[in-house]
Write a structure and sequence with these properties.
The complex is a heterodimer of chains A (254) and B (299). Chain A has helices spanning 43-50, 82-89, 107-118, 123-136, 152-164, 185-197, 209-215, 233-238, 243-253; strands spanning 3-14, 17-28, 32-36, 58-63, 66-67, 70-73, 76-79, 92-95, 170-174, 201-205, 218-223, 226-231. With 254 residues, chain A is of the alpha/beta class. In chain A, helix 3 crosses helix 4, helix 4 crosses helix 5 and helix 5 packs parallel to helix 6. By secondary structure, chain B is an all-alpha fold. In chain B, strand 1 and strand 2 (142-145) form a beta hairpin. Classes of the chains: A alpha/beta (254), B mainly alpha (299).
């Protein structure tokens, strides 16, 4: 496997608060990486820097050897403009904690919006693909519903389908089950599990240690903006070396 | 359990209720208020019936050509000025939210100036523009005399439209701010540029917040067009005045105008109600029941 994402010494500040502290990370093609850690540890920020919802203050990120967010001229990095950033974002799909389906569009309209408006593909080509994706997440019968008519679990599965409709190389999940009622979590996780099996490269920020244990190739534990340790699920969740990781896992499982 | 306990512990005689009847409360105050208001209304109707109003004249001029053409001009000006106001409102709302300080402060100045001076004064400024700029145009390309360009129609359109834009900008800004940040992030991550996002996601959702106040402003605009009578734009009030200068039926023609304004405003109010219903779809309260049903049926 070769590296898809390479992040080197990322720093991110929100005012005086340092959200990322010299974070370096590589993600392999086809890898499923789970990032765990207490709230405020910087795991969501890391994810949001990868698709440029946040701008890094220093460091650099490459996706498939393309520098993200900047153009290099000599030793200087120049920020990219709006449309170049928009183009780079197409390489990754993102799923949010709060779903963020477009509230004024039906389920089908949500899914075809990106392919039709951004990728300029024809509706007749996109709709069959969208229906196949809806089939895959088990919600083909909801294609004409509005998001407000759906449960959280249904909305999140639609959000996954919407991200996949753009055919990204990388899927980013930002606590995708944290806003769900407990009984709705398993449907979303099973969609994600199938996606992992299909070979999609995935970065998942999650509190679902069971999912991480079962699906992840690698687990990263973050705290206070730093990567404390990373390794296989067995290593990190089974026999963590660092005291902070041990405390966190004990607290989550308690 | 509880019912078994209570049947045992309550002495039957004391709590027997078979002979008791609920009586509605009597609202003497409401009856009195209604009676007084009906009396007052009766007096007003009587006054108008006996007053020196020639109702046949009202009926006669209700559909007179001068009145109808004035009505048409009122409607035309409402549409044109409102359209100009909306376009300017959207543009300046976006400018005022821009990170670019030049755009932002130009918009701030625009809103400050046009909300800060009376509409009638602005109308007179436009109409008399020829006093300071005798010609308009781009030097070398084309030029025209300001008096030819600044007809009562143009002066009214610019005055009302630009003034309206200053108010609409604030309404549109409020609408844009009401859109959840999550919607904007979702649009960004599917690769939308700022302009696409504005057109496809932000403005359609902002509409729900923008429509009710803009509806109100369309209704105000219908009536505001009457100030254009001052600079000679032939809207309904101006034409009614022209008629009563000739025939002296002042009240009758004012009543004709009033009735027409009420007709137009009533129709617009119904339209506004329908529009609000349209934009409330997909986000309205009616959906909560169906969402609960979906939740119950299991995700």
């Amino acid at each position: 496997m070769s590296s898809m994402v390479v992040a080197v010494e990322l720093n991110k500040f929100f005012g005086d608060f340092q959200a990322l502290d010299k974070v370096s990370l590589e993600i392999e093609h086809g890898e499923v990486l789970c990032i765990i850690g207490p709230s405020g540890s910087g795991k969501s920020t890391l994810l949001r820097c990868i698709n440029q919802l946040e701008r890094i203050d220093s460091g650099a990120i490459w996706i498939d050897d393309e520098l993200i967010g900047f153009r290099q001229e000599g030793d200087k990095l120049y920020q990219l403009n709006d449309s170049e950033i928009a183009r780079q974002r197409l390489s990754s799909g993102m799923v949010f904690q709060r779903f963020n389906l477009f509230a004024h569009m039906t389920v089908l309209e949500n899914i075809i919006e990106g392919p039709v408006t951004v990728q300029r593909r024809t509706k007749s080509a996109v709709i069959p693909e969208a229906m196949a994706l809806l089939e895959k997440v088990g919600l083909a019968d909801k294609k004409d519903s509005y998001p407000s008519e759906l449960s959280g679990g249904q909305q999140q599965r639609i959000a996954i389908a919407r991200a996949l409709a753009m055919k990204p190389k990388l899927m980013l999940f930002d606590e995708p089950t944290s806003a769900l009622d407990p009984e709705l979590v398993s449907d979303v996780l099973s969609v994600m599990r199938n996606l992992a099996k299909s070979g999609m490269t995935m970065v998942v920020v999650t509190h679902e240690l069971g999912f991480a244990r079962e699906v992840a190739n690698r687990v990263v534990f973050m705290d206070h903006g730093k990567i404390i340790e990373s390794g296989t699920p067995q290593e990190i969740l089974g026999s963590p070396k660092e005291k902070r990781t041990q405390d966190f896992i004990a607290a989550v499982l308690a | 359990m509880a019912s078994v306990d209570s049947t045992i512990s309550i002495p039957p005689a004391k709590y027997s209720i078979a002979h008791l009847h609920h009586q509605p409360r009597r609202h003497y105050g409401r009856w009195l208020a209604a009676a007084l208001i009906i009396l007052a209304l009766a007096l007003i109707v009587k006054a108008f019936a006996q007053g020196q109003i020639a109702w046949p004249v009202v009926a006669q001029f209700f559909t007179a050509p001068a009145i109808l053409s004035g009505l048409w001009n009122t409607i035309l000006m409402t549409i044109c000025a409102m359209a100009l106001g909306l376009v300017l409102g959207v543009v300046f709302a976006i400018m005022i939210m821009s990170p670019n300080p030049v755009l932002k402060y130009v918009a701030v100045f625009y809103i400050w100036f046009f909300r800060g001076t009376p509409l009638l004064l602005q109308l007179l400024l436009w109409f008399n523009l020829a006093l300071i700029f005798p010609t308009l145009g781009i030097p070398g390309l084309f030029e025209m005399r300001t008096v030819d360009f600044m007809t009562p129609f143009m002066a009214t359109l610019l005055g009302l439209g630009i003034n309206q834009g200053a108010y609409t900008a604030e309404v549109v800004r409020g609408g844009i701010l009401s859109v959840d940040n999550g919607q904007i992030e979702a649009a960004k991550v599917i690769g939308m540029t700022r302009l696409t996002m504005l057109r496809r996601i932000i403005l359609p959702q902002a509409m729900r917040v923008i429509i009710p106040p803009v509806g109100n402003e369309v209704i105000s605009m219908v009536k505001l067009t009457s100030v254009a009578s001052v600079i000679g734009y032939a809207e309904i009030l101006r034409n009614a005045q022209s008629v009563y200068y000739a025939n002296n039926r002042v009240m009758e023609l004012l009543i004709v105008s009033a009735i027409w304004y009420l007709v137009v405003v009533t129709i617009l109010s119904i339209g506004q109600h329908l529009l609000e219903k349209h934009y409330a779809k997909s986000q309205g309260r009616r959906d909560t029941k169906r969402a609960a049903a979906a939740e119950a049926e299991g995700a």
